[in-house]
Each structure stands twice: as structure tokens, then as C-alpha cells.
Amino acid sequence: MGAAVAIKEQEEILVTSVTNNIPPEEIMQILSKLKPKSINKINLGVTTYSSVLKDNKKYGKMTQVPIDVVNSLREYLIANHRSVLEQSFMNPKKRKELTDIISLYIKDNELNFPGISAGELINQLVDAIAGLGQIQPLIDDPEVTDVYLNAIDDVEVDKVDGRTYRTNVKFNSLEEAMEIVYKIINSTSETLNANKPLADAALGVLRVNIANESVSYETGITVAIRKPQTSIKVTKETFIESGQASVEMMQAVKAFVEAGLNIIVVGPTGTGKTQTLRVICGEIPNNERTFVLEDDPEMFLKTLYPEKRFVSWRCRKDENGEYTVDYGRLLHNMLRQNPNRAVVGEARDKSALNMLKVFNSGHPGMTSIHGPNAKEAVRRLINMIEEGDTKLSYDAIGRLIASTIDIIIFQDKLPDRSRKWSEIIELTDFKDGEGVFNTLYAFETENIIRNNDEVELIEGNHKRCGYLSKDTVKKIRNKAVDMSLIENLISPEIQEGN
């Protein structure tokens, strides 16, 4: 006889099928004595594929493909072709490679099912393993940089023009949205369940952050997918065309980078700091060996600029999320490889002090930092360094920062959802517990167009506000940079005195 038993523990249901001659009452007595551990990873075949079988939803008419076939195939791919599997979610070429692998797997295992052709079987298995349903077109769209699933009927995207757009993507149910989530989770080493309701997953070049219903209590799910661009989609020209920066600002930054000035890009989350770093890194001279250090790969500078000497390193974490290789260790080892420059994806924690020491020792660098304005970047850096075991005083740290960092670019997102370089400032000194700043450029709002209560368009211009200090002009001139790039930033007094 057969019996099906469901055990609920900590909001998770374990379903076990039993086929034997033991009476159901005795089975229940045995199971009542068991203390099953909570599920560490959701079985995608159970949570998603079975619901597709039942409801015949997004992933095709797969009623003839057994669940265990999908599970076995996934296990095979993770064990033998993990890289192809991870990259196939957004790379059409890798998806084609995955299709070929699955086709060979079907042939080698002599898989065939009545009523379904070989071609249909391949397509259905590829979609069951690596298809993202309704959001797949967003992932494939080269104009999209980020996808936000705020609720089952609220999906937004950021595009390369810096703006955020509402899409017409809607899911029929939370279960349908979770099918996609678990497909991502089960293709990585991450877990998502009642005991671990938050997940950071790296799926090839995709970066996925997920909150399930136990945290996202109103909508039942929140997902953010960052999709780094591995082709030069965002350029100096697109920055200028979109109004993110002016021609004069881009010329000045080109001079700053070529001269080896140390630059920080500061701004709130989601304002495009990484995109700005990627664009201005294109101005690094081709003959300079530049190390790119990141927590998770996002910039892909060697892919974007193959003619340049970029060396990309990443931090590493163990299964508990603890760093085994952090920024501090990367910076230390980088110095043994004779770098010319360093690009640190994001300044953070106590490693910020190591970063400043590197930037201040003849290895020019760039980094980004979270902050509400350009001037706040100095205080944020001081606070990071103080969190470590440094014996330096607040003022000593401030003076170190002022003697190291030359230029700060403030990246912001305006109420009309456009991105702007709101300020470029020069850091000249640190006195009385505060940085001494020289504002070079600022965005000035001239008109606001509203549609009902929503800001539809902010009109304005970037304007020069001041001149570079004499010391910074001298630094740039000594590096044989084309001085016409910054001619509007050189005061008449300095020009007359040369």
C-alpha cells in the first residue's frame, strides 16, 4: 500500500512518499519520533517544476517530462558544467552551448518520452533549467543594467541612460515569481528558506539579492538583479548625450586620470557609481598596469578595454559569508606584482586605510564610496578607518585623506530619475576637523516640469564654479597632459605665471 506523509517544521513542509506494507498508523508513529532538520535548499523539481506540471504555466507543456529527469540533469550540469549553466541565464552564446550539452546528455542517457519530439524535449529542459520566464527578455536586453522585482505586479528596470522605468511584466501569483527565484538559487551555492530568508547569489556575471516572504512581508518577495555590461554600452558620449555630464567635465576628468590624480566617486546606492568608474577608467593610459580589486565582479574592465593592461582580482568568502580574502589582503599582495595603478571597486571598512596608503605611495587610484554628497566622502572614510584598529587620531586620518585624495565626483539620481554628476570638487586640505573643498563644477536646476504630482523632467546645466589649485595644476602639467583639457579650470593668475 502507499502513503504520503507531510511534516511541517518551521514553516517548511517536507513531503515523503512511502510505498510498502506497513500500516499507515505505524508509519505515523515512526515519523512522530523523528526530528527532521530544516531544509537547507529548496528542491527546484518539487517547488517549481511540479507546479508547472500541475498548472501548465510559463515553461511550456512539460507534462511528459518526469521531475526526476530535470533534477538529475541539473545535478549533472552543476557537477560538470557549472560555469556554462551560470552564464547561460544572460549570455545567448552560453545558452546555445548549454543547449548542445543538454542535447548530448539526452542522447547519452537515451531519454525519450511518448508524444514529445527530441527538439521539444531539448527546449523544455533548457527552459526548465536556465529560463527566467517573463523577466528573461529584460535580462537579454542590452539596454537594461538592473532589474527590480518589487512585487508580483511591480517590475522596474534601470537602463544605460541612467533612468528607471516601470515595465509591463506581471506575475499571476507569488508562486510563479518564486519559481524563477528558486531556479536562480538552485544554480548557485546559496540557500533560501525560512531560516535564511535573505540571499546574495552570484550567477555568472549576474548579481542577485533576494528577500523572501518572511522578510518582505507585504509583497511576499523582493529581488534585485544587477546585470554588469560586458560591452561598452555606456561611454563618454552617452554620458554627455544623456546630460549626465558635460563635455567640459569629461575633458577635465580625462586630464585628471591621465595625470594620475586620486579620484573618489561618491553617491547613494543605485546612482551609477560603478558605471562612472568604468567610463573614467577608459582614460587610463594603455601602457600602465592597473589592478582592479572588487568584492564581486562588476566592472569587467579587461573585457571592455582589451587594449589596456587591466588585472582583475576579487575578494573571496567562505560558505558562511566570512571573508577569506578581503580588500586588505588583495592590496597587500597587489604591491608585490609591480602595479602602476589601483582601482578599488568600493572603499569599505578598515581596509580603507590600506587603500589610502597604496594611493599615497606612488600608485594612483580610484574608488567609490556611498554617501549623500561629495563633502561627506571624507567623513565616511574617516569613520571607516576609525572602525579598524588604527591608532591615528581623527585629525591625522583627515590630513592623510586630504594629502591623498585629489578629486571627488558626486554621482546623484534626481527626482525625474535621471543620473547626474551633481558636483566635481577638489579636496585641498583638512582643517578644524573638516575637509577644505574647492568646487569645480556643479549642476544647477533651471526648470522643473511636473505631470500631476510627479516630477517628469528637471532641466538645467552643469556650470564651472571655480579654478583648480596651483598645486593640482602643477601635478597635471608635470605629467605632460594636454593642458587644453583643463584650460577653463586654470585661473588667469596661474596662466599668466605659467
UniProtKB/TrEMBL annotation:
One of its GO terms (molecular function) is ATP hydrolysis activity. Pfam families: T2SSE. Belongs to the GSP E family. It comes from Bacillus thuringiensis subsp. medellin. Residues 132-411 form the Bacterial type II secretion system protein E domain. InterPro entries: P-loop_NTPase (IPR027417), T2SS/T4SS_dom (IPR001482), T4SS_GSP_E_ATPase (IPR050921). This is Secretion protein.
